[in-house]
Amino acid sequence: MPIEGRKAAPTSRVRERSFWVTLVNQALRQYGMSLQDSSVAQNLIHAAREQTGFVEQGSCSLIWAEAARLADDPLFGLRAHRLFCPTPLNAIGLTTLASRDLGSALTNLVRFFPIVSTQVKLELRTLDDLVHLHLLPQGEPHPQHMEAVMGYLGRLFQQLDQDNRELVLCAQLARPAVDMAECSRLLAARQLVAGDGYSFSLARDMLALPLATADTFLLPRFLDSMEELLANLPSTDLVEQVKRRIHLLLGTGEITVDRVATPLNISPRHLRRKLNQEGTSYEQLVDEVRRESAVRLISEGQLSLTSIAYELGFLDPSSFTRAFRRWTDMSPTAFRRQTLKTTI
């Protein structure tokens, strides 16, 4: 449901998590090479270390290009998941594997993927009997980076496919058709097609598939940790930073502008002024976060509607019901009933 009244925010520069530089270097070692073998890459690595955990997108792309050149392997990115797996990818993997079923695993994957990469946004789209996981480039990431993400996601799907059902029916790569045979082997995809984007397609009825690795004890602890990481992830997008802080405060009953502004080292008055310049307001962002969280929590089906109301910081269930009707023109009960029908 689109949010009315929001002006388009100015495009901000994209910076990537610097662990990707370590990932590239570790993968290169399997070829008997190192980024230290490139004077260009050496300078970029030094600059990345001075940027407190982030590297400019242009620098990240140059590092990918240098790595593919040093390895003399045009499929270097797609092969990276077989060579090295960094901690952030392992963390999000554990969270998805501990989820109740495949549907909630995919929801958690999309929700927390900014912890892994800022250059790629994941988006789930349902069409007829298929669910498509699209990889949407942010800015202009290098094709090697996009293919590396595809490789790691393909590996995760293999881990989620605990009964050898071949979860991924089809994958798409932005490569010429002549490359598909070798790429298909690396992705372990039943069918791989050439296109203008990156995606995985799964059967919709698989979403209700329970996971043998589900863990009701560990999952809430994983989710709390991932929420904390997401809320504290540095961002050049002020609106995104504020929404992350609001999300962290949901359920405390104290979603005040002061509590959000303080960790950002900005006064509440200045924060309101900056948000106004972005075409929104603090109250509108609170409303957005509550709406997005309400839809997600009801769709997951793990909490009662009363619990969800308090989880979102409402004083009582009736206040939540009125807000949900305003957001969707449906009651929470009707929305849950509709969600259950679409997942059967």
Automatic annotation (TrEMBL):
Alphabetically ordered keywords of this record: DNA-binding, Transcription, Transcription regulation
An example molecular function term from Gene Ontology annotations: DNA-binding transcription factor activity
Gene Ontology CC terms, in alphabetical order: cytosol
Location of the HTH araC/xylS-type domain: 240-338
Pfam families: Arabinose_bd, HTH_18
PANTHER family from the UniProt entry: HTH-TYPE TRANSCRIPTIONAL REGULATOR GADX, HTH-TYPE TRANSCRIPTIONAL REGULATOR VQSM
Protein known as: AraC-type DNA-binding protein
Organism: Halopseudomonas xinjiangensis
